[in-house]
Amino acid sequence: MQSSFLGSRVTTRQGDLALLHLSRDQQLPVQLSTIVSKAEDKGYAEGVVTNTRFGSFPHSTLIGIPWGSQVLASKVDTGSRGRGDRNQHRKRKADAISTDSPPDEAETSGLKQATAATSGFIHVLKPTPESWTTSLPHRTQVVYTPDYSYILHRIRARPGSTLIEAGSGSGSFTHAAARAVFAGVVEQNASADVGKEIPTKGKVFTFEFHADRHQKVKKEMVEHQLDAVVTATHRDVYKDGFWLSTDSGQYLSPKANAVFLDLPAPWEALQHLTREEDADKPSALDATSPVHICTFSPCIEQVQKTISEMRRQGWVEIDMVEIQHRRIEVKREYIGYRYEGMRGADPVAGNVDEALARLHQVEERAREQQTQGSQPAKAKKDTQGSTQYSAAQVYWDEGRLIHHSESDLKTHTSYLLFAVLPLEWSEEDDAQVRAAMPQLTGSSTRHQKSQEQNRDGKHKKLSNGHSDAIAPLPHNDDC
Ligand SMILES: C[S@@+](CC[C@H](N)C(=O)[O-])C[C@H]1O[C@@H](n2cnc3c(N)ncnc32)[C@H](O)[C@@H]1O
Asked: What does pTM read for this prediction?
């Protein structure tokens, strides 16, 4: 079953995560289900009901409709609320029904038909990583859309990529990463060992050492039907790295070509992101492509430590960016008495003529009051002398064009550090390329140039055991 975050399905289905749009700033995430499984859902004759300030919405009215539909609130029958036992037979019946299809007659037969209420409605929206980020339950600081859209672009996360993320935190970045790498489902058993767990092209391997947060992300991935794309692992990555452990204790490599580290000490995790391998521990990285990394750190001291370690480990093209995202609102400003009563208009004098006309009106009213005696004049809406607003009279280009920039930035500002770990490049590779491309003979290749600076040969080992990798010849992926 395809996740509502990924597919292009046009109607809502049983089990989908949907966002109930209450207002511009408030969206309520709900798992659509006609199956009463939680204690708080029991007691409605209509089955599972979500209550909002705009009324009650039985899920039977939200399933099987086009995404984006407006749904009217229903009058719900709460007669049996609190008498849970009466619903037991309904739950048992519901348990036997697959969650993989829209509610059919069998699923809804025990439920009372919902009756529309006289007022109140919501819109049912398809979730996106962006809307999920603004509505998710925060368990940690999260990465917001302005940052993750740029990060995913810079680490070249694209359909088919394999991405390592640590830590999972609240799963905000995880959702965006899953959408970026998802490239459809592969044939079953394509890979003997890992194939059963990895039925999609494009994978996210997310690691978290806080047990509760890990469990929540794992559960969320199942609920959001993203578990085929995202593998959540409970792990201290500083200590134990990014391998995928199997029951037999064997280390499997995720073969990542993109990495995102949102950790307090990313430099401590870098030792596990090298191309070095030994007999039982393969490299966690994809040997056939350059690896693009981003680390996300709020303090410059963290960045400095990470850069030092990146240099030691052979990462190149190290670059730091801070995203200063600001939304600009462009609108027309309507100033003048003629716009009085119009929403958003500023009802003050728009020019000297309007100011004088209003002054005359006020004086005239005061004079009338004096001649009529001391009786206070009834506050009447005087329209003489000023043209009152009427929608038909306002032309599209009236008002002054102005812009406001958003003051409240909803982003957790951090320094984004990017780097690339090139492909390993040996003298044999160099010789092969030179043989295949004779036009290179005579002009020194990039490797030769590197060699001139680094006479020790292909892959100089530093005294601390780390490698000083040589940048490869330009690779398609890097151009
Ligand atoms: C700021 S949060 C990540 C938020 C996440 N990027 C998001 O968008 O929701 C950092 C997470 O890293 C986890 N963490 C810290 N040290 C870790 C380690 N050594 N191994 C794995 N996870 C770690 C923390 O428990 C925390 O949940």
From this structure: 0.74
